Amino acid sequence: MNAPWPRQNWPRQTGVTVDSATRQTAAGIEIEGVGKTYAARGDSAAVVALRDINLVVPDGAIVGVIGRSGAGKSSLIRLINGLERPTSGRVVVNGTDITALDERGLRAARRSIGMIFQHFNLLSSRTAFDNIALPLEIAGVARRDIAKAVLPLLDMVGLADKRDRYPAELSGGQKQRVGIARALATSPKVLLSDEATSALDPETTDQILDLLKRINKDLNLTILFITHEMAVVKALADRVAVLEHGRIVEEGATFEVFASPRHEVTQRFVGSVTGSHVPEWLQEKLVAERPATGAQAVLRLSFRGHEASQPLLSQLTRRFDVDVNILHGQVEMISGHPFGTLIVAIPASAEQVTQIAAQLEAGGNTVERLGYVA
Fold it and tell me: What is the chain's mean pLDDT, rounded?
């Protein structure tokens, strides 16, 4: 990946400002001050879908945009491939200002922008080979040259033996592989993904994400994908932008956003996959004030990097002579870094809890006091 400085040093942002250092990054996609408003129709008022969006997708990077339904994700991706024009701002892809092109220029620019879809969008009357060949046929490529392009793509996505199969004869994962190969047929520099795995089962989703990572590495292909699934972001993205009500509310390196989410929307997304959510059964038992007898302090601990693999709880047990009861949590890898969240109950005095929290925080961990249980 061609980055002028290490990826971990790219600036992290909240809100919508893109600073000058980020703008200087070699970019496959640059979105600058983009807004999109859909005009009023009949009795329906005008809809503001996007507001002052600034986002840079560095050349060769994988960036995910996550948001709930209605956040503006689909509008954003349609602006990048020129299917919609912004009300304000500009979109630059591969150095070309998409917003300044006429329809003829857009058709030419789209050949360097691959697109994969949630529901595959394959033609049922065409075989896997012919579906992949379609963009090349539209571009006027000779049939003998089409075969030279399509056969390696079938092999790349693991479907060499399915070249003559029709979509009805393929599984969902195989259909999406055909869709990915078709998106690569014109040798694009940028690949856009619109909820490409949301119609697939978990095992097939993992296979498609692994394929996209391999394609990114082998072809140095810039990938921007939109999703509502934080697990997809965790598995695929170098960086993530969180979209809410048409605005980017948080953006940064995936591990940093997962480890220290700042916006409440991000916190909800992250909690769904890191175990940081407080289970409902525990919420019902938590009280804010310390009970007079039998009190246990409930702490949420976040472990990062090297600390996530250390026996910290057993060390605390020995040092402070207290029992630590694990109530909830998990440890996993995010962007190649271990990260863990544990919710624990400790039958200790207020002074001991303060000392325990201080020791954990001294090791670079995050400690949050959630309350007490009897």
Answer: 86
